[in-house]
Write a structure and sequence with these properties.
alpha+beta; 14 helices; Alpha-Beta Plaits; 607 residues; single chain; Elongation Factor Tu (Ef-tu), domain 3; Rossmann fold
């Protein structure tokens, strides 16, 4: 049993790529969590293949470390390594809810970035003690004084006592550990009160079933205890209690202030809602802890198997993946062009990409992804027999109701904060204007511009992030949060191939951008659809009005090859016959659009 004053719970927060996971490695190594032989690769806590390959953290991970301070006292440190990417901000929020302090890691060469700021604000909301750590001081481009000024000017934290370190070389790691012990406060809690624990995360383990990460606020969780999940209303028997060091270590109990895991013979992860309060079934707590907000999918798209026979395999794979990612949602849908598939909800484009890649890799599936879209609110006019006009949520453009019934359409808007060096400011302002952005603020801090823009989310989900990075050569950083719905002049654009609408390619666009988007799509399909023996018109239409058109020329068989000289009327007769045949073929012939054409037409970021 560890005394409360000897416990420290902290998370590591930073922008993408500022060295959180490498710093976590050094802390684990320095406190003897793993031997040098077991540190087989960098980023020990990034255990998914995709995390290792991309060098990013997707899931927040926890580890318990023992540290003897310089004054000879023995401490227990609970470290949480968090993701840096904006799509996984909910992982950060729930990790911060379980801690009392945070290490704010800032790259000595890059300085403060957009996500640094977003995470600091979250941390301040939880009333945390924040310890600034300036990392990568061994880089030739490191400028410690400049970064100190940025931390003070932009973030508003005193940076005189910021810890200087290089997580890669191990320089300054002892100072980081001392700062954790001396500057982060110990947890508070009453070990004799009824059990009150917060469910921080849960995932599915093929051997242990559902594993639940908990932070005990009051009381204690013991092996063999009967616990109740207050929001879900279910009761379970705890059969395993332990902590990660980072290997699993069984324990008899987790007491107030401690972070660890429990298993309780739970088969379905949907019973374990993140933010739920766990209490003793026999001696329950009077009230639940304030949970954190439910995670809402922001971007939707359809996932279809290339081979229709793989549908059952896709259903099984998606269900398994859902066990380890509570923020991912799905429901079945059908498409005339693509057959059976699923409409899936994601937190952003990176999240979509990661899920798609995991399905392809871990479950060996070949998938087609439809164009991503956001959730629109459609206000309908009052129908006969209805007391009130209805409002519906639209996830799939193909389900758009009859335009005559629509009173108005609202779309989600975001507030984006962009940090960019002065040299790239002009093109980035133009990019934001082109995407219907409203500029709210423009300030200069330490030689960089800080832009605040309000933007419609559907203009951002396509390829905004890629364009931003390519325009600024990777120097711009971007963070956003949703600010609600606003009415917009939005229309559904259909793509017709040989006068037949292709539902998988329909999309909702702003009326002003419809023509350009339609023309672009038609041009792209013209290059992708192979030529047939008859002319194929490709059209983009809004309602009954065609706004763009391209025509694929027909393949022509030389029917006059067998005529050697002779009368010209013979040749004309054969050509007329061919013309009639082509006309009939066009009326009854169907255009086969290859799957590759769908995939290429739906691929974002190539505009």
């Amino acid at each position: 049993m560890t005394e409360l004053r000897k416990l420290r719970n902290f998370s590591i927060i930073a922008h993408i790529d500022h060295g959180k996971s490498t710093l976590a490695d050094r802390l684990i190594q320095r406190t003897g969590g793993l031997s040098a032989r077991e540190m087989t690769h960098g980023q020990i806590l990034d255990n998914m293949d995709i995390e290792k390959e991309r060098g990013i953290t997707i899931k927040a991970q926890t580890v318990r470390l023992d540290y003897t301070a310089r004054d000879g006292e023995a401490y227990v440190l609970n470290l949480m390594d968090t993701p840096g990417h904006v799509d996984f901000a909910y992982e950060v929020s729930r990790s911060l809810a379980a801690c009392e302090g945070a290490l704010l890691v800032v790259d000595a060469a890059q300085g403060v970035e957009a996500q640094t700021l977003a995470n600091v604000y979250q941390s301040i909301e939880h009333d945390h003690e924040i310890v600034p750590v300036i990392n990568k001081i061994d880089l030739p481009a490191a400028d410690v004084d400049k970064v100190r000024h940025e931390i003070e000017d932009i973030v508003g934290l005193p940076a005189d006592d910021a810890v200087l370190t290089s997580a890669k070389t191990g320089l300054g790691i002892d100072e980081v550990l001392e700062a954790i012990v001396t500057r982060i406060p110990p947890p508070t809690g009453d070990r004799d009160a009824p059990l009150k624990a917060m469910l921080v995360d849960s995932w599915y383990d093929p051997y242990l079933g559902v594993v639940i990460l908990v932070r005990v606020i009051d009381g204690a969780i013991r092996k063999g205890a009967s616990v109740k999940f207050m929001a879900a209303g279910t009761t379970h028997l705890v059969d395993r209690v332990g902590a990660f060091r980072p290997k699993i270590e069984p324990m008899e109990a987790l007491e107030a202030g401690e972070i660890g895991f429990i298993t309780a013979q739970i088969k379905d992860i949907s019973e374990t809602r993140v933010g739920d309060t766990i209490t003793d079934a026999r001696r329950p707590a009077a009230e639940a802890l304030p949970g954190f907000k439910e995670v809402q999918p922001v971007v939707f798209c359809g996932l279809f198997p290339v081979d229709a026979a793989d549908f059952e395999k896709l259903r099984e794979s998606i269900s398994k993946l859902r066990l380890n990612d509570a923020s991912f949602s799905f429901e079945m849908e059908t498409s005339a062009a693509l057959g059976f598939g699923f409409r899936c909800g994601f937190l952003g484009l990176l999240h979509l990409e990661i899920i798609q890649e995991r399905l392809t890799r871990e479950y060996d599936l070949d998938l087609i992804t439809t164009a991503p879209s956001v959730v629109y609110k459609i206000h309908l006019t009052k129908a006969a027999g209805e007391a009130e006009p209805r409002t519906i949520e639209l996830h799939n453009p193909a389900d758009m109701p009859d335009p005559n019934r629509i009173a108005s359409i609202e779309e989600p808007w975001i507030e984006a904060v962009i940090y960019v060096p002065d040299d790239y400011l002009g093109p980035i302002l133009k990019l934001c204007q082109d995407r219907r952005g409203i500029q709210k603020n423009l300030t200069y801090v330490a030689g960089r511009a800080q832009l605040t823009y309000e933007l419609p989310l559907n203009e951002v989900v396509f390829d905004f992030y890629d364009r931003l990075k390519s325009i600024s050569r990777g120097y711009a950083s971007f963070d956003y949060h949703q600010i609600g719905y606003r009415e917009g002049d939005l229309v559904k654009m259909n793509i017709l191939v040989n006068n037949e609408p292709v539902d998988a390619l329909s999309m909702i666009v702003h009326r002003a951008a419809a023509e350009a988007r339609g023309r672009h799509m038609c041009e792209r399909l013209k290059d992708l659809i192979p030529r047939h023996l008859f002319k194929i018109p490709i059209q983009a239409a809004i309602g009954g009005k065609v706004i763009a058109r391209e025509t694929i020329a027909a393949l022509r068989k030389d029917v006059t090859a067998k005529c050697y000289g002779g009368d010209a009327t013979r040749k004309r007769k054969l050509l007329e016959k061919q013309k009639e045949g082509k006309k009939r073929m066009r009326e009854y012939g169907s255009v086969s659009i290859p799957q590759e054409a769908f995939i290429a037409a739906l691929r974002m970021g190539e505009e």
